[in-house]
UniProtKB/TrEMBL annotation:
GO cellular component: cell surface
The name this protein goes by in its record: Pilin
Pfam families: N_methyl
InterPro entries in UniProt: N_methyl_site, Pilin-like
Disordered: region residues: 126-160
Lineage: Bacteria, Bacillati, Bacillota, Bacilli, Bacillales
Transmembrane parts of this sequence: 21-40
Amino acid sequence: MLIKMMNRLKKEEKGFTLVELLAVIVILAVIAAIAVPYILGVIEKSKKSADVATFHQVYEAARLYVTSENIDISSSTPKVIKVQGDLIAHKYLDPGIVLPSSKLKILLGKVTFTSGALTSIQIGTGEDDTSTESWTLDGPSAVSSTGETVKDTTVLTSES
């Protein structure tokens, strides 16, 4: 019986049928249709997280600058620390710092403190304000200029 089956296999099928190939293609298409949007969502989330980390790095540099240079930020009048003029010029930030989502070099921006607390961070990747992204603290969350919200502002203002 085993010999009979072996002979039959040798004589008959020597490849895949069109139906079998189409079935595999359909299964792969379904898997791709499910996986691609998920993967793109993960990529977008990671870009946002990387941007928030960059904003946090700028905030920490501004905090270090204010402390090291003995700048009074306790006033109710907003105190603006410029990214290019203060932080990069005084070597508190690397001049090659980039915004991860766009991979563009940060060329301008400012960190604003009011009454000793961070009120906003703005970062720009262009020569003018048209390509500036900003995060403004709004109670327990931070709101970007594009309307996105970070619920946990400890990411931006943690004392770690």
